[in-house]
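Lab notebook page, bench 4
Experiment: in silico fold of construct C2
Operator: M.H.
Input chain length: 131 residues
Purpose: comparison with the prior construct
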Amino acid sequence: MSRREIREQIFKLLFRVEFHERDGLEEQIQLFLEGLPQGKESELRYMEGKFRDIVARLEEIDQQVNERAHGWKTTRMGKADLALIRLAVYEMKYEEDIPQGVAINEAVELAKSYGTDDSPSFVNGILAKLV
């Protein structure tokens, strides 16, 4: 899988966080990974590890977003937009090998596919405030 495809799968897994209790996430991870086409074991481990790390930092990530997203709180954001923003913030703040511009661009591109017509500009605007 390409990095973009892996990022997209992590986004899809992260999207589930809004619909399931934390104690049900283990089951969701297993169901999700089982539903993927057979891939390299290293890619599956990477996706799962990154997802777990993001979930462990959700409060911290949401706080950063809420402090800078004037007029918007994470509780009011669309679920797809929120998952993309969380993923991008994680990449911007906690992954040194991913340039901030790449994290933002990838989130905007995924917003074009999974969000509303307004999602790309919304996601871009929120993330630009975090740079």
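Observations: The mean pLDDT is 92. The first helix runs from residue 3 to 15.
Next step: discuss at group meeting.
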